[in-house]
Design a protein that fits this description.
single chain; alpha+beta; 13-stranded antiparallel sheet; 21 helices; 31 strands; flat
Length: 759
């Protein structure tokens, strides 16, 4: 039999098991359940669980105590689980019954009853108090599509959770939010405290508008009202803190409303809130809120609603009513979903099944939950029979849950016990590694040239290491300690893995801090050049233009693979040994870096100026050579003055060609720095005089040729102007002059430029 057939067989057997006649058919519990759910119809199921949770708790208490043993870390698991089941209220649950009967074509009345004949404790108190008429249905219009009135006791839930945490995790119980931990001046905290202490009722009313009410393209124009009858002032205070521009106005009945406007995320409606005593109301419009408040007749008088309550109960603690139009709108919404959402085959099957179920709903669906003197009764009327859910309900029986707990909890605690043993072994191994590390540091202090030392070598200088006791069969003879690492690692045969991190020396810490300072500088330059970026990677830091041009060398095995956030106040790095080294970022470092770059650039130009002067003298003394390099001038055994590197630049490959006036050198962090030699003052004055002579001649030319805007120097010379005497090989014939120009610039053969202004 394959897996599919086994699953089908299981689905067929479970309902049969559930429908089997109970062994305690004449018990008081059986009679109480039968009276509440009735035996007639399609399905009747009875499950007697009197004493089941107490027995399960006793079994778990014994099994978990045996598994936990004397392990201190597992003491929290050594609980009285029978008492815990009683605190949660599970021990008070005596029996469960359900039934389903047809009340019309495609219509079923379903009942689920929890038999609780004793006073309720723990989670069973969350259902609220005694059943009562549904009072807030009067707010809903007759054409309401969804109505919910739900009573709940959150204080009971909160108290139960806190008691449970106090047993299992006292520290977590202390951190659990509650009224005593809330700052009264904090609106959100006060609202949370009021909500956690609430014994309240929630009412929700939804009226759909439009034929394609829930279409993805449809604009949200529906009417919604939500009322919580507890914590209203606190919720309003929290809302005021969240939306400072909350607008206050008066309704037609004189009550105060608060408009949320567009601050709620661009809804086409204009939501409002109101507080009446302790009650808090939210509505999609002031008109709908006013309509509900002033209503005299509405949903309670609608025939469909009255028929739904007649088939269930007119009194209870929670009520959910849904109209056929709501299901039709949901069906249309699913049918209109884009195809790409159905690309997953499993999800598509779920959607198709849901479509089929929604398509056949042509009458209202209702669910009523009622607290009765001896239990809780849930009654529903709709198109689905509980018979179709029996396989799932069968899996939810207490026996299955109990057996899962009996299997999983001891296995989980046994796993925790193994982890605790592993943790103890790792601690013992780490203590032994600490002794080895201390011996290694003493060895390195005595052997300045040693870069690493083996455990066997350390035994010679520290014989007491032979007394180390393995915690889990680990072999310390394989350990080697390196000077440039702050960690020692060892793995034991049982899987225990321990790392000991020695303290950093002052020198090691300072080196790492200096490396982090380089990243601070790189971040200052990077974020200044990239204002739209908020994160700097370690790789990009080497390209930022600062002193950091490559990843720094490791000091103790650390890796510089972090990122720097624009607004981070610190840059931190964790070494392999677990030590965190932090550099606090320097405010205004960008300006300091930029000033230093300017100063360094000026200092490099001074060195290039010295280079140019020495090289020019050399070329003048050696007319047969066309250029000279820095190595020839300032290399080894040269008598000329040494060039001082400012920021790590190298002048050996720099060279000056004959007739050139400029030099350049690549500087790490600065890029290319260019030096251009200035002309002698007398040469500059002579060239400027020649330019002014040509400018005066150009004025006469433009007077004779009013249609021209440009003139070339050669044209002026051809007209009879005397050729100016060249000072530095400048070419006046190709110089172009512009009508009305206030200045003229000429470029010399060596690239320098001379300008004559105030023509």
């Amino acid at each position: 039999m394959n897996l599919r057939h086994r699953i089908l067989a299981l689905g067929a057997l479970l309902p049969a098991c559930l429908l089997a006649a109970p062994g305690s058919g004449d018990s008081a519990h059986y009679r109480a359940v039968r009276e509440r759910v009735g035996e007639g119809g399609q399905v009747f199921v009875y499950v007697d669980i009197d004493g089941y949770f107490a027995e399960l708790g006793r079994d778990l208490t014994t099994e978990l105590a045996a598994v936990a043993g004397d392990e201190p870390a597992l003491a929290v698991w050594k609980q009285d689980y029978a008492a815990l089941a009683a605190e949660l209220g599970l021990a008070q649950l005596k029996a469960v019954g359900l039934s389903s009967r047809m009340i019309g074509p495609g219509r079923y009345a379903n009942k689920i009853y929890l038999h609780i004949p004793e006073d309720r404790r723990g989670l069973l108190r969350v259902f609220g108090g005694a059943a009562h008429p549904f009072a807030t249905a009067q707010l809903a219009p007759a054409d309401t599509d969804l109505f919910v009135e739900a009573e709940f006791d959150l204080s009971a839930f909160y108290t139960t959770v806190r008691q449970l945490l106090t047993r299992l995790d006292p520290e977590a119980a202390k951190r659990l939010p509650g009224a005593e931990f809330v700052d009264p001046a904090e609106p959100a905290g006060a609202a949370l405290a009021a909500f956690l202490k609430a014994q309240a009722r929630l009412t929700a009313v939804v009226r759909l508008n439009g034929e394609t009410a829930l279409s993805p393209e449809a604009e949200f124009k529906h009417d919604v009202l939500v009322v919580l009858d507890s914590g209203g002032p606190q919720l309003l205070a929290a809302l005021r803190a969240r939306y400072p521009k909350l607008k206050e106005t008066k309704a037609a009945d004189g009550r105060t409303l608060y408009l949320l406007g567009e601050e709620t995320g661009g809804l086409p409606c204009q939501p409002v809130v109101a507080v009446d005593g302790a009650a808090f109301s939210f509505a999609t419009s002031a008109a709908f809120l006013q309509e509900c408040r002033a209503r005299k007749t509405g949903l309670p008088q609608a025939p469909a609603f009255r028929a739904a309550l007649a088939a269930t109960a007119a009194e209870g603690n929670s009520l959910v009513y849904a109209s056929p139009r709501l299901f039709a709108s949901l069906h249309a919404l699913i049918a209109s979903l884009p195809p790409f959402l159905r690309s997953d085959r499993t999800f598509d099957v779920v959607l198709r099944t849901l479509e089929k179920r929604l398509a056949k709903i042509d009458a209202p669906a209702v669910s009523v939950t009622s607290n009765l003197p001896e239990g809780v009764l849930v009654q529903t009327v709709g198109p689905e029979s509980l018979r179709e859910s029996l396989p799932v309900l069968g899996l939810a029986t207490p026996d299955l849950a109990g057996n899962l707990l009996r299997f999983t909890l001891p296995a989980h605690v046994a796993g925790l016990q193994r982890q605790a043993l592993l943790a103890r072994n790792e601690t013992a191994i780490r203590d032994n590694l600490a002794k080895i590390s201390a011996a290694a540091q003493a060895y390195f202090a005595a052997q300045a040239d040693a870069e690493e030392v083996a455990f066997t070598t350390l035994l010679e200088s520290t014989p007491e290491l032979a007394q180390l006791v393995p915690a889990a069969g680990e072999d310390y003879a394989t350990v080697t300690v390196r000077r440039d690492r702050d960690s020692i690692d060892l793995v034991a045969p049982d899987g225990a893995s321990a790392t000991y991190g020695r303290p950093l020396t002052d020198a090691e810490r300072q080196k790492i801090e200096r490396n982090l300072a380089l990243y601070d500088e790189a971040a200052a330059l990077h974020f200044a050049a990239h204002p739209d970026e908020n994160t700097l990677s370690a790789y990009a830091a080497t390209e930022a233009g600062g002193a950091l041009t490559r990843t720094p060398s490791s000091v103790v095995g650390e890796e510089y693979d972090f990122t720097v956030e624009r607004d981070a106040e610190e840059i931190a790095l964790r070494t392999p040994g677990g030590t965190t080294v932090t550099h606090r970022r320097v405010p205004g470092l960008r300006w300091t870096v930029l000033k230093r770059r300017v100063q360094q650039t000026a200092a490099v130009r001074e060195q290039l100026a010295l280079f140019h002067a020495v090289a020019s003298d050399y070329l003048a003394a050696h007319p047969e050579e066309g250029y000279v390099s820095g190595y020839e001038l300032f290399g080894e055994e040269r008598e000329r003055p040494e060039l001082r590197a400012v920021a790590g630049e190298n002048y050996d490959s720099v060279r000056l060609s004959r007739g050139s006036a400029s030099l350049s050198v690549e500087v790490p962090g600065l890029g290319t720095v260019v030096y251009e030699a200035e002309l002698a003052a007398r040469d500059t004055a002579a060239i400027q005089g020649n330019l002014r002579t040509l400018a005066r001649a150009a004025v006469g030319y433009f007077q004779q040729h009013p249609e021209e805007k440009l003139v070339v120097g050669g044209e002026l010379l051809a007209a009879g102007i005397e050729l100016p005497t060249s000072v530095a090989g400048e070419d006046y014939e190709t110089l172009v002059l512009e009508r009305g120009a206030a200045a003229i610039t000429i470029t010399l053969r060596d690239g320098r430029k001379v300008t004559a202004d105030k023509l």
